[in-house]
Amino acid sequence: YFRSRACGGKMPGGRYRSEAQYLRTSRVPDPATIPGEIAEALVTAFRARSRHDASVAAWQAYGLTARPVFV
After folding, report:
1. What is the structure's pLDDT at 64?
2. Residue 58's closest CA among 18, 6, 44?
3. Side-chain half-sphere CA neighbours of 52 within 13 A
4. How far apart are CA 41 and CA 37, in angstroms?
5. What is the DSSP letter of 65?
6. Which pLDDT band, with edges at 50, 70 and 90, does 45 fall under?
7. How far apart are alpha carbons 11 and 23 in whole angstroms?
8. At what angle do helices 51-62 and 36-48 cross, to 10 degrees?
9. Exposure pattern of 22-58 as b/e (b: 16+ CB <10 Å)?
10. What is the pTM (predicted TM-score) of this model?
């Protein structure tokens, strides 16, 4: 959802257009503050190429409490 709003429309091939001005303003948690079980969940999800599992772990890493909507 965030990328579709921040980066605009999709380019040919279905990829979002990422521009440096948007990437610089994206805040990410300090890796040292991410609990080990969440970090491991992120590693496992990315290795398995599971968007769903990676999104769930990322929401936890950001400390978000709203339930993510997966499309």
Report:
1. 82
2. 44
3. 2
4. 6
5. -
6. very high
7. 17
8. 160
9. beeeeeeeeeeebeeebeebbeebeeeeeeeebebbb
10. 0.57
